[in-house]
User: What shape does this take?
Amino acid sequence: MTSEEVRVHRHRPKDRRAQIAATSAAAFAELGYHQVSITDIGARLGITSAALYRHYPSKYAIFAAELFRLAEVTVAAVTLPPQAQQWTPQRRLGHALEAIVAGTIANRPTVALARREARYLDPPDRATLDDRFATATAMLSELVAGGAPRAVGARVRGARHRNVQRGQQHRRPSGGAVGEIDFRTAGFAVLGDRRDGSARAGFDLGSPGHGGRVAAQA
Assistant: This one.
């Protein structure tokens, strides 16, 4: 090697942290959180464990961060822009449902991870995740109640009242309230159904067992 020889440096992608998170989520959802090691994740990305540790201190840190990111995506999906104050209730609801669908499609591996493996979060982190999903559920509940046809809105509001009463008396082991609304049913009623009774598509951003399922039919 001479001094004139040009050295070739491998530059780290600017989105390496996001790549690690997405690849890890897919691996955790596919194989199970406890069946995937840092070495496995690095192998999927073509990097060493040492390189991965430059971005995350542990496998658990990746796991928790990706679930928290999904929770924030869920809240953002049902958060309306300022101009929504001028919209009809139906348009507000439609905007939120479209955002839920788009967020689910864009984050499929992490949605699967939340459904299958969220139980492995440490209790304080699980409580935080549950609270964020519950916030999204409450926000969507208000939109469904306001933007659904009158009969559907009344039914949803009645279900919310009953669920709150039950939730004050019972808690699931995971910390989620019992009896939260399943928005697959509410979305189905709002957007209509096929003659055979089947929904056209279903999307679920909630993790199982936390009492904060957020789903939509489109």
